[in-house]
Automatic annotation (TrEMBL):
Pfam families: DAHP_synth_1. This is 3-deoxy-7-phosphoheptulonate synthase. The gene is aroF. It comes from Citroniella saccharovorans. It is an enzyme of class 2 (transferase). It comes from the Bacteria. Keywords: Transferase. Residues 14-252 form the DAHP synthetase I/KDSA domain. Its EC number is 2.5.1.54.
Length: 261
């Protein structure tokens, strides 16, 4: 394995992902209303966040679970950006939605279920926008890397790999967060690799220690789910943290960056 691959950095305005600073992506799993995402954007901006995330289209295992507000939520997210100046990211599920979303958001997210949707990867890649590519929950490292190649071969190198846990026999956690795999992929490709301990564990009590572990390993940032009242969140309540816990994480990341400066 080569160790001399040129380090790749994704630039979004003044923000560098994959540079010296570790970044934080945070926000609710699902955007529940206009007031919800705007209020959360304002609070997270106060506490400290680099990118605001919020789900508009939610592919849920059960069709009876909350599926998101669709394009209504995308517009609310854009309104939150206009109010706070935050960079925004959200997941796209369908090729037909890409062109309608590209002028509203800053970063496309490809979720775990769509990592193998190569037609969608190509379509999103051609927008030139940065792309968060989440690892499929049953994907090998090679399959994850090759999904990135579908984007790269369309001329888009603004790729941010996101380790979000893989499915194993373990039942104490929702998934098994593969930090070793994330580290190996970063060494192999030199693209930014971030970690999502929310989906990676399904347990809010594990998020803070895994944030620390991810940064200690040299990975490029973290993505966490945050809600004012986590137990009342319409999706992923058990893995969502409150503002107080998020503040501790944000302060830790800030001090980590200061110590490296």
């Amino acid at each position: 394995m080569s160790t001399n691959i040129e380090k790749k950095v994704v630039n979004i305005g003044d923000l560098q992902i994959g540079g010296d600073k570790k970044i934080i992506i945070a926000g609710p799993c699902s955007i529940e209303s206009r007031d919800h995402i705007i209020d959360e954007a304002v609070e997270l901006k106060k506490i400290g966040v680099d990118i605001l995330r919020g789900g508009a289209f939610k592919p849920r295992t059960s069709p009876y679970d909350f599926q998101g507000l669709g394009f209504e939520a995308v517009n609310y997210l854009k309104e939150a950006k206009d109010k706070t100046g935050l960079i925004i990211a959200t997941e796209v599920l369908s090729e037909s939605d890409v062109d309608k979303m590209k002028d509203l958001i800053d970063i496309f997210q490809i979720g775990s279920r769509n990592m193998y949707n190569y037609a969608l990867l190509k379509k999103v890649a051609r927008t030139g926008k940065p792309i968060i590519l989440k690892r499929g929950f049953s994907a090998t490292l090679n399959e994850w890397e090759m999904a990135g190649k579908y984007i790269e071969l369309e001329g888009n190198s603004n790729i941010i790999f996101c380790e979000r846990g893989i499915r194993t026999f373990e039942r104490e956690t929702r998934n098994t967060l593969d930090l070793a795999g994330a580290y190996l992929l970063k060494k192999k490709t030199s693209y930014p690799v971030i970690v999502d301990p929310s989906h990676g564990t399904g347990r809010r009590d594990l998020i803070e220690p895994l944030v620390r572990a991810s940064l200690a390993m040299g990975l490029d940032g973290i993505m966490v789910e945050v809600h004012k009242c986590p137990d009342n969140a319409k999706s992923d309540a058990k893995q969502t943290i409150d503002y107080e816990t998020y503040k501790k994480i944000s302060e830790y990341v800030g001090k980590f960056n200061e110590n490296r400066a």
